[in-house]
Amino acid sequence: MAQTLENPFLRRLIVTAVKQETDDVKTFQLIPEDGKPLPYKSGQFLTFLFSEHGREDRRSYSISSASGHNEALTVTVKRVPNGSFSRWFFDRVKRNDVLQTIGASGFFTLPENIEAHRQLFFFAAGVGITPVISIIKTALCDHIHLQIVLVYSNRSIAETVFYGELEQLKASFPERFKIEYIFSTAKDLERAHLNKWLLPALYQEHSDGELDKQLFYICGPFAYRRMVIMSLEELNIPAAKIKKEDFDVSKPKLRLMPQDTGSHQVRVQVRGKQYSFEVNYPDSILQASRKAQVAILPFSCETGQCGTCVAQCLSGNVWMSYNEVLTDDEIASGKVLTCVGHPQKGDVVLSFDADGQLVSR
């Protein structure tokens, strides 16, 4: 009989309210069933566990509330026509239902050295506003030195998620918060879509001229993100100043092989306990841990694109086959993605505790 392992990251959340934002977007208010706070940073997401036909699956949805402001924890979900999980979430989840999560994850957050920055630019399309509004609320209330510009693309006001809340924030912080709405139904075709001509014009209009003190955040569909990134690159914005959120769960093809495909031992620290298992290529560290059935490690996308599986490497070397999450500085500090990570040239020691991950995960 297969061993049943306790998941140390699992939390149960009670749905306390459901708010219809637009025709296809709802916000769900949540409280932990055990009464203990669920720590998170503004801009992060929750990974939920779903059971379907006896098989567990996972999906991540962005937190729309602001951390540390006595706001109820909320996630905002868009109903995607061909999305089985988003349709279930949107159509069936109601007040008093209980959901399972492994906690908050993600690096689409304010940096630790936020005091060194003066201006933040946010580019959001559709429901991509969800993590963005979380960060904006925290930035406006907690960091009064920041100037914030939001460029937000939608079809119309009626389809603009959080339109009323954004207008209230703009009225409360008129000197620090500017919004440029882009509506595809606008009569002025030059402002109907954000493009490589309009974006530079908006940047020049709102930029304070101190590029070294600016940061840029992007959240929206793939084509939108690509266009914004390319436009910022043409403005000579360094890649290190650009943060993007990506929830694409498609599996990227392995482009490279590690130099070392041998077998190595990996020891992981999880909530103060230690577990060891062997990793054999092509299995990643995460895949090997699941096969070994010695410990449950956090994960979501399994593609190197969300950051839920991040760990701190305490000893040894880990090669990653794909990475859309960690910056060069984070990698240099020892952070690794276990879903695409492979031990190299010897054994490895990893931590999923405070130094490698939020304790809440």
UniProtKB/TrEMBL annotation:
Annotated ranges, domain 2Fe-2S ferredoxin-type: 264-356
Superkingdom per UniProt: Bacteria
Annotated FAD-binding FR-type domain residues: 8-111
Molecular function terms, GO-annotated: 2 iron, 2 sulfur cluster binding; oxidoreductase activity
Database matches in Pfam families: FAD_binding_6 (PF00970), Fer2 (PF00111), NAD_binding_1 (PF00175)
Protein known as: Oxidoreductase
Organism: Taibaiella soli
